[in-house]
Write a structure and sequence with these properties.
heterodimer, A: 269 residues, mainly alpha, 14 helices, 75% helix, B: 258 residues, Rossmann fold, six-stranded mixed sheet, 8 helices, 10 strands, globular
């Protein structure tokens, strides 16, 4: 796969047309339309905020906790949307794959780009929330850019890997739903990582080796408060590179598996 | 532009030849029972059952298509002609053998690929155009002609689901005939529509024939084979049983039922 061909003009047009279609279709026939891209994550945030921050009183010691929580839920929604849409992309676009010849990765990337658009809109909301909450922005907020890119590449790698297996074994979709549920509690979204670190530093270290935790904590560190525990300031050793290595490994392995299997998608889907 | 599919290595540079196919084989794994779930796969492994059987669809095809030929490919359902077309189009991969394609090949396995009922006619035209490999500028330039030809100008901002099926075909056809390629692959795509529409299809075929466009047409209509093709190929059970004069091939095809 040589890079100039991967991003040639024809493929770029196809990618943008498919992404536009995905985005238009998603909210067809709903009264509020595109607004749902904003409302859904905000409602999820509201529920979690009421249950965990107000009723269970978690996170009262963290500055700007609502924004901190919103950051986590937004990035989590992005990860789940990206992976679930990406994994199903080949199967749901089976009609195209059976009838025309084009690079199959376009379908997966276009499915994830819808999630990227939603996420970017929501990052805008986070920033507005942060301003209302009097969060002070520092140049460190630029840290969110590499962190978001890392999270996206991780999601893409998972989508390539599991998406190509899903063509033959549709069980993957259901299995991934369960894994997502489990992962939600393995990532410090609703609970602050300090809570874990106080009782078991080892458990906190293991949690922070997960690239999803690492990126979410980095984003909180950059955007909200530098009191945030991150992988690198908590582990303080070369071990902090592990999440990045995991991301690269999944992406490369996923892309290789996808390339090998994509030859036969048209026959199997 | 030369494109090569398959395993063998030597490339013949014969200026006349548009497509060269050598010893082309293709098999599919057909599931013998529902094996698309993990449970069934594990079950089958434990019992030592494969869960599928190998079906040979193409058994060593050899032919060359010269530039400017209008080739008809005929055969009964399940003879392998659509599989052949899909391999030529790059949708399926050849299992064994070699295919050399000299030139830009534009396949139409179906009209209106990617048409979405929830989108407007306008949006569908751009989507379908992108799938056929047109750039946005090219689409802008031919946009009005497409609607003019389809005679559907008043419907361009209606959703496609509000079109009748005939209207959808007309729109898809109007986009498809804009495609410019050195080689056109047509799979039975033009067998739909009313009499007036059939007339337009015939005019289109005649034009292709007069322009010496290289065309490969898969069809069941012996009338079209006799009228337009310069050569025809009969495929039976994955093998070429007749290759040559369209009238003789059409006769051989009709005799399959006698």
């Amino acid at each position: 796969m040589n890079i100039p061909r991967v991003f040639n003009k024809k493929n770029r047009i196809l990618l943008s047309e498919l992404t536009k279609t995905d985005f238009k279709i998603r909210y067809q026939g709903s009264v509020l339309g595109y607004l749902w891209a904003l409302l859904r994550p905000l409602m999820m945030f509201a529920i979690l905020y009421i249950v965990f921050a107000k009723l269970l009183r978690i996170g009262n010691d963290i500055p700007h906790y609502p924004v901190y929580l919103l950051c986590g839920t937004t990035m989590w929604s992005f990860f789940t949307e990206c992976t679930s849409q990406g994994i199903q992309a080949i199967v749901s676009r089976g009609d195209l794959i059976r009838k025309i010849s084009f690079p199959k990765y376009i379908v997966v990337v276009s499915a994830t780009l819808t999630a990227v658009i939603n996420m970017l809109i929501n990052v805008g909301v986070i920033i507005i929330f942060a301003l209302i909450n009097h969060v002070e922005f520092s140049p460190m907020c630029l840290l969110i850019i590499p962190a978001i890119i890392e999270l996206y590449l991780l999601s893409l790698g998972i989508a390539f890997l599991l998406g190509s297996i899903n063509v033959k074994y549709r069980d993957i979709t259901s299995i991934w739903d369960v894994i997502i549920q489990a992962l939600f509690y393995a990532v410090p979204i609703i609970y602050p990582i300090t809570m874990v670190a106080n009782t078991s530093p080892l458990a906190a270290k293991i949690i922070l080796l997960n690239p999803i935790s690492q990126t979410i904590q980095d984003i909180r560190y950059g955007l909200i408060t530098q009191e945030t525990i991150t992988t690198w300031n908590f582990l303080n050793s070369p071990l902090a590179l592990i999440p990045i290595l995991i991301t690269i490994t999944i992406l490369v392995f996923g892309a290789l598996v996808f390339r090998k299997k994509s030859k036969f998608f048209a026959e199997e889907v | 532009m030369k494109r090569k599919l398959g395993t063998r290595s030597e490339i013949i540079t014969d200026g006349d030849v548009a497509i060269s196919v050598k010893d082309l084989h293709k098999s599919f794994n057909l599931p013998t029972e529902k094996s698309s779930s993990l449970k069934q796969v594990i079950f089958n492994r434990l019992r030592g059952v494969k869960g599928y059987r190998r079906q040979k669809v193409l058994k060593g095809l050899n032919f060359k298509i010269k530039k400017g030929e209008f080739i008809g490919i005929v055969g009964r359902n399940g003879s392998g002609k659509s599989t052949l077309l899909k391999i030529l189009a790059g949708i399926y991969y050849p299992e064994k053998g070699e295919i050399i394609i000299d030139g830009n090949l534009v396949p139409f396995i179906e009209l209106g690929v990617g048409f979405n009922p929830e989108l407007t006619g306008r949006e569908n035209v751009y989507l379908n155009g992108a799938l056929l490999g047109f750039s946005n500028e090219e689409m802008d330039a031919m946009y009005n002609d497409i609607w003019e030809f389809a005679e559907l100008k008043d419907f361009q901002d209606q959703k496609l689901k509000n079109y009748s099926s005939g209207m959808q075909v007309r729109l898809a056809f109007s986009i498809a005939i804009r495609a410019q390629g050195d080689i056109l692959l047509l799979d039975e795509v033009l067998a739909v529509g009313d009499a007036a529409f059939q007339q337009k299809c015939n005019n289109y075929f005649s034009k292709l024939r007069n322009d010496n466009q290289t065309v490969i047409l898969v069809t069941h209509s012996m009338e079209n084979v006799r009228k337009f093709c310069t050569r025809a190929i009969l495929i039976e059970n994955g093998e070429i049983t007749k290759d040559g004069d369209p009238n003789e091939v059409a006769n051989a095809y009709t005799k399959l039922w006698d």
